[in-house]
Amino acid sequence: MKSTIGWKTSVIGITAAALVVTSFVAAQSKNEVSAASKQAKNVILFVGDGMGTAQRDAIRLATVGEKGQLAMDAMPYVGLIHTGSTVPVTDSAASATAYASGVKTYNGAIGMDANKKSVKTIFEYVKAMGKSTGLVTTSQITDATPAAFASHVEDRAKQSDIALQYLTKTKVDVLLGGGEDFWFPAGQAGAFKDEPVEDPSEKSKGTQGNLVDKAKSLGYTYVKTKADMQKAKGGKLLGLFANEEMFQQRPEGEGDLYNPIVPLPDMTKKALDTLSTNKKGFFLMVEEEATDEMAHNNNAKLTIKAGQELDKSVQIAKNFAKSHPDTLVLVLADHETGGFSIEEVDANDESGDAISKEDGPFQIANSKQNFVVDWTTSGHTAVDVPVTVMGTGAELFSGVYENTGIFTRLAQAMGVKLPK
Ligand SMILES: [Zn+2]
């Protein structure tokens, strides 16, 4: 509106200087108007679970070295997030509830506030706008981080309830990850056999019947291998690729394994291909879980390996955003895990014992130098985590703010109308 007045003023302006000034003002306010009205049609949110600043640095040093840049770092905007829940040290459930619904809640809560009242999630808001939704993770697809975007339960352990809500309440279009044990009742092994050698504690334990059959009856294509996933057609896709996590989280040399049968970048690519058929757009959440669970085991080698897979997935999203410029891409963590630090190789500097002894040395890529990783805990910490952002609305995310601020900024970027 201001620009119209500006132009009229310029027409009746007398001196050339006045004309230049008013034209400049007009052009500027026109840009402001178009920036404000431009909304992100698509959002791709990456969560490196437990991936604090130091983890990101270690992944960078090991992958591209001191002069290189990770895909997750080569973004124009950065913010810093305070991660506390109703207590200083959050878990993944409360953190994801803060991101998805904008409330601080108790650890273990999924889509519920501190009074155990359901809170609407960003997935539910965008679904009402006609957009599609997708969840991708190397964890159980019903684990805390994905769960808080698309379900409401008092306790994160209720994973079969969460799965049922995905299918019948929030109707998530794309579900790719592990955790088939919660989709099949005891006695029905599913695609991955019960009590496998790599972890004999894993077996079907669903409490809501056969939810894979239920998904198929609701129109989902169900896949259990990478080849089947890549061939799958249609807008509703369920892929379950492990009994539990798609890796085995253990300390180094104790049966630790990070080699998902469908790598995170492939799941990310398929999710984008499937969701982008919706002309109204989509919201995709992609989580790498091993950055947290390997850090709980103070296993730096596989924390870094998992982070490298996350970074490859981010590159796929960035390629998508290049050809779909109305897309917002974010990379953040829900909290830091392990009190991870990067140190010089020095035999006289050792702060821990047992699993929290230093790990490494790791080579800094493209150099002859090394670093070691040390740990202060096998739990989570309360330090801030960074968010790097690119695309439509990315500028909203710079600054230092609470985890609940991610929700309000996402809503603003996508033009979600929040209740007053
Ligand atoms: Zn954790």
UniProtKB/TrEMBL annotation:
<comment type="similarity">
    <text>Belongs to the alkaline phosphatase family.</text>
</comment>
<dbReference type="InterPro" id="IPR018299">
    <property type="entry name" value="Alkaline_phosphatase_AS"/>
</dbReference>
<feature type="signal peptide">
    <location>
        <begin position="1"/>
        <end position="27"/>
    </location>
</feature>
<protein>
    <submittedName>
        <fullName>Alkaline phosphatase</fullName>
    </submittedName>
</protein>
<keyword id="KW-0479">Metal-binding</keyword>
<keyword id="KW-0378">Hydrolase</keyword>
<keyword id="KW-0460">Magnesium</keyword>
<keyword id="KW-0732">Signal</keyword>
<dbReference type="InterPro" id="IPR001952">
    <property type="entry name" value="Alkaline_phosphatase"/>
</dbReference>
<keyword id="KW-0862">Zinc</keyword>
<dbReference type="Pfam" id="PF00245">
    <property type="entry name" value="Alk_phosphatase"/>
</dbReference>
<keyword id="KW-0597">Phosphoprotein</keyword>
<dbReference type="InterPro" id="IPR017850">
    <property type="entry name" value="Alkaline_phosphatase_core_sf"/>
</dbReference>
